[in-house]
Design a protein that fits this description.
The structure is a homodimer of 410-residue chains. Chain A has 410 residues and is mainly α. Chain A is built from 18 helices and no strands. Chain A has one domain: Na+/H+ antiporter like fold, CATH 1.20.1530.20.
């Protein structure tokens, strides 16, 4: 209305964000890349072309972006089947464990070697841990590999390292908020995050089916979707009250509602809300990238080194389950893309002041490159393994595993 | 995240708003009342029980509520068929014209008689003009009267007085923002609002079909809904830039997209977003009601007088088309409920300082009472007219018209 001269500005900012993220998201998808990459680039472009626009509306855009992260983690939780994780079992667990410990440790030491202080180095290591479930699943599905053993192992491992990554994130969030870095407090914060998820699942699985069964009978339109969202917001708040992070609560809410009969309806309305809120988060992360840091040799060195560590450590994780006779290189490469969780780490590090703009740009670069290289690599690996079967010409090195896997499933 | 101690508060506020509006909206619907009444009461309760909660998150809740109004007017526009308005023709136009002029004039003079100054008295008159399309349509549809001539006339008139009400609103918004109250400037602002809608429809009807035809072929998920929203936000901004109000632009965007083949999909995602945003607006209006003013004799006198004028003037408007031989009382009563637009007037008046808290409460009371009395009155009128036909015992006064209408359609 006329008296608030910032509200029309907010409207225009939202128009710019929606138009740019959808346009570049579409271009990314047509180039066989995930849409999130386009949304990030849209944010970078908006931040560069219209300096100040992304911050004009200040606290409101910021709050919309944070609601976007909460809704995103709620969506990821809704897609995650805790029980099927148990079924994929040992193989995924080993891939996930190695795929968390290795990048975290290597990332930390690479950062320290580059002269980074302890806490930012921990944030760097942590940002390397979590594979993007969405990106891996989408690419493997496009290649017809999602139902094969390798695809199932990747999915399971990606979900596990998401959970572990979120726990690390809640520890890092508490640390960057000023808590002392003592082994006991790290243990305590991890215990709170794990305890919160376990307790929420135990209580939630008893309460949610009855509660949402009642809500389903409500006549007022949109009640089920609204109730799901309120449930996610409530658990997100409860997680912070318990000393953990909002995203842990939102994720736990999704896990709980995954197994209710009302999931499909809740998912539909959450996805629609997500289409509005989530790109605001990715765009605001992209807009936080200071383009001047891209020409900074320190940024390029850190970004290059972290990207290399990010790729090699996940590929190595693919080889960790030594007993598995499938395409280990395919598993490793599929674990490479970092996405949402890595960006949340970077954004949180920047907002809290733990990360310098240079390190923030280096981590954003790492997320973009790992996401960017995976789809063509996977397409080539799957093509090679198919060709390998047809021509009986295995080649050497990692191709052995690819062929073994292809034969197994042929 | 841990470092923003207001974000968890925002989450909790949203949980309280969602839970209270959906619960009381459901209770309202079960009592055969529109859900918006429950949402308003939810806001009153939240404002009273948790003083400060609705304002704790300050600018963010305010911005979400304003986005709610824009989305609401976009939805109303999407439901409005400009061409069918032309078909209902003269009868609706006369009902609408009398139903705008009479309440506006009477409301203004009643307010002045109560000692209210010129500008707040104009706001009071203006808030009485617009019938709530949604409420009338819903109640008439429940009673099986929507397809009858009376129902069609009510729908047409309600849409026309919404448009006229919005134009009056844009004039009042500019006035309360400090512009001088001169006949020429009132004329100019009205011309801008009408001109904006006409120009937007002319340009939009040429551009939108091609534009949204292209967007429909986009693969990225949720693109069509996002594009519709961006279109509404863009026109809302353009309307303010042209010197009118955001809601004029959002309404025009809805009118334009109503006649595109992509309407159904855009409507679906807008409705889902509306389920989240719109109740925040109604709850924040309810929360603005200062309960202490309810015991204030001046408020009760003003609220009572305005409610009486609101009811009588719309009933009189039903009798305006003297040539129509249908149930005129039914038409008049169906025009009584004021809703969204009346609340927007009141909220805008309060925010700009033009309305005192007492007058704001009086207008909110008027909206609630007119909305509250209509459904049982309509049910009774329809029942009476049906009984009249069965027993051939017409009774006297307004019942003549009811019976004539019932015979016509029997």
């Amino acid at each position: 209305m006329a008296e608030h001269n910032t509200f029309p500005q907010l409207l225009l900012t939202l128009v710019a964000i929606i138009a740019a993220t959808k346009l570049l998201g579409e271009l990314a998808q047509r180039a066989k890349q995930p849409a999130v990459l386009g949304e990030l680039v849209a944010g970078v472009v908006l931040g560069a072309l219209l300096p100040g626009v992304m911050n004009t509306s200040g606290p409101v855009i910021h709050a919309l972006a944070e609601l976007g992260v909460v809704i995103l983690l709620f969506e990821i939780g809704l897609h995650t089947d805790v029980r099927s994780l148990a079924r994929v079992g040992g193989t995924s667990l080993v891939v996930a464990a190695v795929g968390v410990v290795l990048p975290f440790t290597l990332g930390y030491f690479v950062a320290v070697a580059l002269g980074v202080a302890t806490i930012p180095a921990i944030v760097c290591g942590a940002a390397l841990t979590a594979t993007s479930v969405g990106i891996s699943a989408r690419v493997l599905s496009d290649l017809g590999q999602l139902e094969r053993p390798e695809g199932q192992i990747v999915l399971g491992a990606a979900v596990i390292d998401d959970v572990v990554g979120l726990i690390i994130l809640s520890v890092v969030a508490t640390m960057t908020a000023g808590a002392a870095l003592e082994p006991l407090s790290v243990l305590r914060i991890s215990a709170v995050a794990v305890g919160f998820i376990v307790l929420a699942l135990l209580l939630g699985n008893r309460i949610a089916p009855t509660l949402f069964g009642v809500i389903e009978r409500v006549r007022v339109s949109g009640a089920l979707g609204a109730a799901g969202l309120a449930f996610a917001f409530l658990l997100a708040w409860a997680a912070t009250a318990a000393g953990s992070a909002t995203i842990i609560g939102a994720f736990a809410a999704g896990l709980i509602l995954h197994s209710t009969p009302q999931r499909a309806q809740i998912e539909r309305s959450t996805t629609t809300l997500g289409h509005f809120f989530v790109p605001i988060f990715f765009a605001s992360v992209g807009a936080s990238v200071d383009l001047r840091t891209l020409a900074n040799p320190a940024m390029l060195a850190a970004g290059g080194a972290l990207t290399l560590v990010a790729i090699l450590s996940k590929v190595a994780a693919g080889y960790a389950p030594w007993w598995f006779r499938g395409r280990k290189l395919l598993i490793g490469v599929a674990m490479v893309p970092r996405g949402e969780v890595g960006l949340i780490f970077a954004q949180m590090g920047l907002a809290s002041g733990a990360l310098s703009p240079v390190l923030f740009s280096a981590l954003t670069l790492m997320v973009m490159v790992t996401t960017f290289v995976t789809p063509p690599l996977l397409a080539r690996l799957v093509g090679d393994s198919d060709r390998g079967v047809r021509t009986d010409n295995p080649g050497e090195g990692g191709i052995d595993d690819l062929v073994a896997g292809a034969r197994e499933s042929a």
